[in-house]
Write a structure and sequence with these properties.
- The structure holds two protein chains of two kinds.
- Chain A contains six helices and no strands.
- Chain A is mainly α.
- Chain A is elongated.
- By secondary structure, chain B is mainly α.
- Chain B has one domain (17-487): Cytochrome c oxidase-like, subunit I domain (Cytochrome C Oxidase, Chain A), CATH 1.20.210.10.
- In chain B, helix 3 runs antiparallel to helix 7 (193-225), helix 8 (238-272) crosses helix 13 and helix 9 (279-293) runs antiparallel to helix 10.
- The longest helix of chain B has 37 residues, at 65-101.
- Classes of the chains: A mainly alpha, B mainly alpha.
């Protein structure tokens, strides 16, 4: 049976191969930062590809960005920024053992992530409707002959980012369940902080995607 | 897991297939990797023998051209992704890193197991791709051919993609372990040099592999939905693929060689009964190689249409890699000086490594020179060069490691006499295979052709005969190692009189 702390939280047991809870926390944090490092490089090739083709076909990029809705992109940027704030607040709440606030803030983060995906869905649906797709299915209208490259990049970049948002949503649901069980308190909140770091990275990628794709020109 | 109070070895604590496949014990995970990479080595070796046999005549012997293309692709893909990359870091790294460091396990044991499962899963996709119509693009998957060939590029590439994540997660695990799990007293400059080399390797795995992952993903996207960034017919740039690919794959050759160099630093101290000469320089040179290796990928593109200026810079940076590599070689030789040398089998592999790696390294300088590379590009000279580094370097390191740590890992001794014979056969066979390839490459024999000008036949025949000698050596080794597990004598706790920590 798991031990409970006097405040009713599930007492965290340090894994056998660590000396102390602090060592365990620091190790997890370093591991997470390394993982984020590889995430950055994972996205980097796409950004390089973006740069190369922007350089090769500058006029096409300016034409292509008129097909994207700045309003929707802006809305999503705001939604994600709010979610980043609530995520940070959730970590803060876990640090001070406030179970109720942790839960509420995580829930708001999850709702924001969901909203982001709904807006993304609407944008995608519109692109599908107008045939602004990668070359295999492209039937959009435009003056440039290589318009499909922009949309190839657009779907790769936003698609990969969207998958990261979905994974983040899964992780937040996992956190919600664990929060409800009372596993996070002032002495153990590692998973909340780690998912928080991941979530901020997902935000950060979008912060770059929004101007690069929607605000060209 | 409970070795502290338990006197039994880690083999005896739990038994049965499931106790292995879901273990969190780094030693068992290391052994499972070892078995997997040995299977990979065997498979890749069979393809190599078949290729050499086909090349014994200038015309078709038993493979059609397409089959030949598939066979050399599979040889490359299997050897690179299933054998060399995971060989030393995943198998010996997992087994030895916590022991050498004085930690109870790696930082994230669950993640470690997940890496192994990912590795198996990726391997499964590679095997699957063989049955769905084996890839014929060469292990580099160059666009645009890889976009249009009707072989199962997607399955093979997806397998490599998954194995890439196995490699990344192992790297994350090792770096976190080395940073945070060192016990008090184990300072950075008291760490064994093998750990330094694993540290440098892990940096490369974490920072380079994701670029390969996204490149392969983009290649899949290109095949599925024609995103048009690599396909010139759609306005894309195939050279971009080469840049992306080599941004990973050049550091990857150091992912392969650095751990082997780490093994060499351990072997030379043990068998010369001396402390390592220039410890700090060897440690720093590992990091130096790791850093420079990120900046040299363009030397694979000298004839792919990059600018002359870029090619000059890449050529210069390529020469720079020779400096930290030479620092290691000189320090090892200085360590041997006045040592009391005990030429046991692992030490023989050390000597083989130094000799063969020097040949591989020097020919690398030749290929790094712009004017020479234009002539030698895509000839057998290149093939011989990278086999001298990969096989003469990494494989010798791997075999040295197997023989050195065998008693530690399996608790049994092997037949020293047979081991020496096998070592001689392997080293001699290897040279007979690949030295003639330098000669025919310099004379203009292009790589990846199965029908060739009869003037080169004599070299090909020598090379093929060498491959048989090599194979006999490997089979002999397999024989005495299996014998050792079945009825070898029990190993003493310190068979080599080493002063190391594990």
């Amino acid at each position: 049976m798991k031990q409970l702390t006097k405040d009713g939280f599930v007492k965290h047991e340090v894994a056998h191969h660590f000396e102390s809870a602090d060592q365990e926390f620091q190790t997890a944090k370093l591991g997470m930062w390394l993982f984020l490092g590889q995430e950055l490089l994972f996205f980097s090739a796409l950004f390089v590809a973006y740069g190369v083709f922007r350089f090769l076909y500058p006029a096409m990029f300016i034409e292509a960005h008129h097909h994207l809705s700045v309003n929707m992109g802006f809305l999503n940027t705001i939604v994600l920024l709010i979610s980043s704030f609530t995520m940070a607040m959730a970590i803060r709440s876990a640090q001070v053992s406030n179970k109720k606030h942790t839960f509420v803030f995580l829930l708001i983060t999850l709702v924001c992530a969901g909203m982001f995906m709904v807006v993304k869905y609407m944008e995608y649906a519109e692109k599908f409707h107008h045939g602004l797709l990668p070359a295999r299915w492209f039937f959009g209208e435009g003056t440039s002959e290589v318009l499909h490259i922009f949309f190839g990049l657009y779907f790769c970049l936003t698609g990969l980012h969207g998958i990261h948002v979905l994974i983040g949503m899964g992780l937040i649901i996992w956190l919600l369940i664990k929060t409800q069980r009372g596993e996070f308190y002032s002495e153990y909140y590692t998973p909340v902080e780690m998912v928080g770091l991941y979530w901020h990275l997902v935000d950060l990628v979008w912060i770059f995607l929004f101007p690069l794709l929607y605000l060209v020109g | 897991m409970t070795h502290v109070v338990d006197k039994r070895s880690f083999y005896e604590v739990k038994k049965g297939f499931m106790s292995w496949i879901i273990t969190l014990d780094h030693k068992r995970i290391g052994i499972m990797y070892l078995v997997s990479v040995l299977i990979g080595f065997g498979l890749g070796g069979l393809f190599a023998l078949a290729l050499r046999l086909e090349l014994i005549t200038p015309d078709k012997l038993f493979m059609a051209d397409k089959v030949y293309n598939q066979a050399f692709t599979l040889h490359g893909v299997i050897m690179v992704f299933l054998f060399i990359i995971p060989s030393i870091p995943a198998a010996f790294g997992n087994f030895l890193l916590p022991l050498m460091l004085g930690a109870k396990d790696v930082a994230f044991p669950r993640l470690n197991l997940a890496s192994f499962h990912l590795f198996l899963f990726g391997a499964l996709f590679l095997v699957l791709s063989v049955f769905l119509g084996a890839v014929d693009t060469g292990w580099t998957f160059y666009a645009p051919y890889s976009i249009y060939t009707n072989t199962s590029v997607i399955a093979a590439v997806f397998g490599a993609f998954i194995m890439g994540f196995s490699s990344i997660l192992t790297g994350v695990n090792f770096i976190a372990t080395i940073h945070t799990m060192r016990p008090p007293g184990m300072t950075w400059f008291r760490m064994p040099l093998f750990i330094w080399s694993l540290y440098a390797t892990s940096i490369l795995q974490v920072l380079a592999t994701p670029v390969l992952a996204i490149t392969l993903l983009l290649l899949i996207a290109e095949r599925v939905m024609n995103i048009g960034i690599f396909d010139p017919a759609l306005g894309g740039d195939p050279v971009l693929f080469e840049h992306f690919f080599w941004f990973y794959s050049h550091p990857a050759v150091y992912i392969m060689i650095l751990p082997a160099m780490g093994v060499m630093s351990e072997l030379v101290t043990t068998f010369c009964r001396r402390n390592i000469f220039g410890y700090k320089y060897i440690a720093y040179s590992s990091i130096g190689i790791a850093v420079i290796s990120f900046l040299v990928w363009g030397h694979h593109l000298f004839v792919s249409g990059q600018s002359d200026f870029a090619a000059m810079i890449f050529s210069l940076l390529t020469f720079l890699v020779a400096i930290p590599s030479a620092i290691k070689i000189f320090n090892w030789i200085a360590t041997m000086y006045q040592g009391s040398i005990d030429p046991k089998t692992p030490f023989l592999y050390f000597v083989a490594f130094v000799l063969l790696f020097c040949i591989g390294g020097f020919t690398g300088i030749i290929l790094g020179s712009l004017s020479l590379d234009v002539n030698l590009h895509d000839t057998y000279f290149v093939v011989a060069h990278f086999h001298y580094t990969m096989m003469g370097g990494v494989l010798m390191g791997f075999l040295g490691a197997i023989h050195y740590w065998w008693p530690k890992m399996f608790g049994k001794m092997y037949d020293e006499f047979l081991a020496k014979i096998a070592c001689f056969l392997i080293v001699i066979g290897f040279n007979v295979v690949f030295f003639p390839q330098f000669l025919m490459g310099a004379k203009g024999m292009p790589r990846r052709y199965h029908v060739y000008d009869p003037e080169f036949q004599v070299y090909h025949v020598i090379s093929t005969v060498g491959s048989w000698v090599l194979a006999v050596g490997v089979i002999l080794m397999a024989y005495y190692l299996i014998q050792s597990i079945r009825k070898g004598e029990k190993a003493p706790s310190n068979p080599w009189g080493a002063l190391t920590l594990e």
